[in-house]
What does this fold into?
Amino acid sequence: MAEQPRTDVPAIEVRKLCKSFGDNEVLKGIDFHVDQGEVVCVIGPSGSGKSTLLRCVNRLEEPTSGTIIVEGVDITDEDTDLDKVRTRIGMVFQQFNLFPHLNVLRNLTLAQIRAKKRGKAEAEETARRNLDKVGLAEKAEAFPAQLSGGQQQRVAIARALSMDPDMMLFDEPTSALDPELVGDVLDVMKQLARDGMTMMVVTHEMGFAREVGDRVVFMDGGVVVEQGKPEDVLGNPQHERTKSFLSKVL
Amino acid sequence: MRPTTRKRLFRGVLYAIFIIAVAVVVLLADWEAISTNFFNLEVAAEAFPTVVTEAAKNTVIYTVIAFIGGMIGGLILALMKLSPVGPYRWVATAYIELFRGLPALLVIFGFAFAVPIAFEWRPPGGSTGAGLIALIVVSSAYIAETIRAGIEAVPKGQVEAARSLGMRPSWTLVSVVLPQAFRIITPPLTNELVILIKDTSLLFIAGMALGDRELTTFARDTVSSQANSTPLVLAALLYLIITLPLTQLVAKLERHNKRGR
It folds into this structure.
């Protein structure tokens, strides 16, 4: 029996997480958590393991060892209904990953109908409400290829939100966008954070981390090097590696 | 000699050779023999309407049956070949390699004669039915490889997106992967269909009853009974009427796919 989600524990709790790809040890015993309602931004150089950590949280990557607990449910336990847990974890990808053969509305309703067993009418109503939230209500009938990158990413956010998730994972959501399109996506994410959504954001947008993040986690070489309030980590880093990274990106 | 002059001269020589070659063919050909043997209107008139109502119709019916059967078999084999369970993969690989490596004619012969005799099996639809089963068996192997390639061409992120939304593997396959895979493989699948149309001609080896004949069998029978080759030309024209629109469609789809990417 899968446990029911709990509200009195951290949204995400990761203990001693290790992940290797062959001989390449990407995560070396990570301890990490996100509290309910918290916005945590994970920063670090490429290859530091931050995307792998995020992808382990809904087990798109299979951890080599360690424990991942989402709302009190151990998702590394073989008996856990992973698909059910995943409906509570929204995920946004760097490459959007919209379904190109379906129009925007059906992109948003597909999983509601297939995974949440919602009726078509309810699914469409939820979809339209979330499209409105990301400012794309008029694009319901469009196909992904007809949208700009920024619009596609906002549709992807609306698709994840349509499952009514308890938390959202963002895997470098603006890295594949043209610079002038980044702002619209960040605005949607800021609004989400203001609405109290629990968020884990892997990002290179230091401005966003500073403005929206409750906590910033700096990763390098498969370990968490430093974490704390954004103004501390970004403004007054304690570790050499953090200083050296920030001096390159800021 | 200036380069432009030389170019013009060369072009002139090419035209001259062509005209001479045409003239030689026109002068040497036995037009009388050609028109009486290949374009004999009386023989052609006699072949109608059977050549359309029986032969062409059966060619189309056999093609559709073999294609639908091949799609079902091919899909099953492709999924087996991509299965995480080893034995399924091995069986699918062995099947595909075996039937792609054998001449279709041999397989049809086996199903129409060898298998029925060995196992006292009465194929449904007689020897035509046995031949059709053989065509399905062979086309499944080819179509399986096409479908597998299509499934593998769907970006990994599509599966990840569907799974991250909580969709189970079966729904992910049916609503996300397969629709995109089939879009990708529409041109090669149409090609398979064209090849299958022509391969129905191999069914003649099965030995078909009168109403079962397709274009090639009909043409061969009529050629020997009339001692005239016009039915062959007639069959050829009917094949082209069926295949040419399809090959044009493939070209169009390929252009369309290229633009979409």
